[in-house]
Amino acid sequence: MTGSDLLMLVFLLLPLAFFSGWWIARKKSLNNSQEGVSALNPDYFKGLNYVLNEQPDKAIEVFVKMLEVDSETIETHLALGNLFRRRGEVDRAIRIHQNLIARPNLDKEQRSLALLELGMDYMRSGLLDRAEGLFKQLVEMDAHTIQASRQLLSVYQQEKDWDNAIFYARKLEAISGQDYDPIIAQYYCELSTENLAENNEKEARENLRKALNRDPRCVRASILEAEFLQTQNKYKSALKAYKRIEKQDADYISEIIEPVISCYRHLDQMNEAQQYLMDLLNKYSGISCLLSLTELIIEDRGADEGLKFISSQLSERPTVRGVDRLLEYVMQQAEGEIYNNLTAIKELTGKLLSDNSIYRCQQCGFDAKLLHWQCPGCQNWASVKPVYGVKGE
User: Fold this and answer.
1) What is the DSSP letter of 374?
2) Domain of 66?
3) Structural contact between residues 139 and 149, judged by C-beta atoms closer than 8 angstroms
């Protein structure tokens, strides 16, 4: 918290502390106005002295202690705790909310709200086990159930406890009416990945089945299923799973180009591979598809045909990656000064590509070099996708 922020907070607390001290003194006075003034809490003047001496931290501590916890000031304490948490002063927020919970005069609603806020404090400070205990308590109390369940979902995601995450996601579906099927499908994919790491193929397949039942548009489940089938040498079935992605979300087409070619190669069906890539290119464009198809044309009909093909395609939809690969092909046939000039341009396109992000979150704009199924920035699932345009696909 900056010095200006602290001073602003002090001046917000100043009238509250004064009123609190005056009210306490007034209740204790014997109907004598002068005696009421003289009975004003001396801590108020102590805090004011800290303000005048530019010691806002100490002033805040004094004024917070002066605010008597009752039905009139409970919201003030909660607001202060929230403010401290947002400013990163989690220790202070925890002290305020713990102090509230310790008060015997709180009603059920006030206590449950303080428990919720304290759980949020623990989450912010990374004390997930303490936060989990408080949120479970709130669910059992049937208080702030939706908020508490959402926080529990966050806890279990961070702990990678996917079974409990599925349980609370289903619970949230029932009590909030919100569709959690796409998220639950991701949890099943996480479980399947863990199963495969443990060589538990049966459970892995079962969890992928559950993922697709929950969300038939789950691209990740299709990719995992296809990869698994490839390892089993079931290339036709793997192709079927890969091709499903075109209807699920065509933005991910670039992710399956190479494994699809690999399946066709094992089946000795390279003509079919070329035709499939040409169909994809005509429908969705995408530089990954173009580059892979160019390689297949070179392999089948020679470098001149491949160069002619990629040149005609890039004239209609140029991209940095495409130009970079075209330069590579041309340089293989160039000599002397022409080669030197092309090398300089190739260095430029290479630098542009090295500085360029391949993936971006559609929700928060997080840039990445690798595909993340859960965005590291905003924590949303399946929101990170390949970048399209001149510098991307």
Assistant:
1) B
2) 3-170
3) yes
